[in-house]
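Input/output pair, single chain:
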Amino acid sequence: MIYKNFYINVIGRIGLIFLTCLWLAYEISTPPFVYTVLFLGIILALQIYGLIWYVNRTNREIARFFASLKDKDSSLSVSTREKGGSFRELAKTLNETATLLKEARIEKESQFRYLQFIMENVNIGLMTFSDTGKVSLVNNAAKKLLGIRSLTRLNQLNAVNDNFERMLIDMKPGEQTVMRLTVNNELLQLLIRITGFRFHNNNLKLLSLQNFRQELEEHELRSWQKLIRVMTHEIMNSVTPITTLTLAIKKCLTTNEGIKSAEELGEENIRDAVINADLIEERSKGLIDFVNNYRSISQINKLDISEVKAVKLLGNTASLFREDLKKLSIRVSQRILPEDLTLTIDEKLIQQVMINLVKNSIEALRETDNGKIELFALKETDGSPVIRVLDNGPGIPVDKLDEIFIPFYTTSKNGSGIGLSFSRQVLRLHKGSISVKSEPGKETIFTLKF
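Output:
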């Protein structure tokens, strides 16, 4: 409708110009009347000027409108009072468009300020930088953590740590690391994560910095409290009987006046003293074993790495328990995907971890009918090798899941409580992890990720 009105208006003006030209030509071809020719010439000039003004005025309005958009000025509007009104609808549409763009720009600005407010008020340090080391954004938390006032280039971080810039540039998206820094005489434990993204055809990295020293200290404190509680319990279980037995021996060999004579001792007192001494020896050996078990956990610090076929590792583990499994009617199955899966591990240590896990599963299945253990090795989507040990035993209560890896904690009467602690230590040395998922009454799954 808008362009139809414009078309009709222009055609009408051109038609009038054409008719005026014909009239002027006619007057010139006949004996001319000077004033008539002059009048028609003026009318023709005015018509041509009017046509040019009409077209250019609209073009100027539209050009001015789009220029304002280019300059991000949405306050300009097109007049709707243009004579003839043929462009009134166009002006109205352009003004509505300007209003929509203005609202969109305001909303965009509001979202930017909202995100900026969040970024500036989170406790985690955030910054973005390019591969060339140019820093485009950094929040207050990052500046406070690093003890700097402004940051425009990564090389400025070398004032905090000599290798800071090189480390950040070399880190790949998805990686994380821990860095110890001293800023303003305060020791920081920084957890650094890198995420890659693309923005305006530029490859950027998002860096997050988090000082987890306090959380780490609190976690360590809780771990030490749990460890000390278990160790105290174990030590008291040995020391208390030893003290009691020592007093019993003393009672057999002495009286209020002093040490009994050979005649006063008697065969019964001697027998009791020997029995108590044997019990003291037994409990002392138990305490020595306890200390040796602790040493076995704390002294693992070196790996003998080699490539081991998963089929060999799982097969050897199952073979070691063949008789126990047969005696308890426990079925064992093995799955390996792909079949030629190879692990780069310390074979002896990981074999011991597997033995610990299968042994725990057998203990859990002693009172379970149709017991089943599944050994499953596979590669995850990120290429990481994973081993899972699954059993359909009674499971582990939810409130115990965070305690089973504490040294010397055990729910088994004959257990030492070091198997899972040992396993976690071994997996950490492999830069891996061990985790557990249990559904009481259904299944328990231990996962080793390398």
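The chain has eleven helices and 14 strands. The two ends are 70 Å apart (CA to CA).
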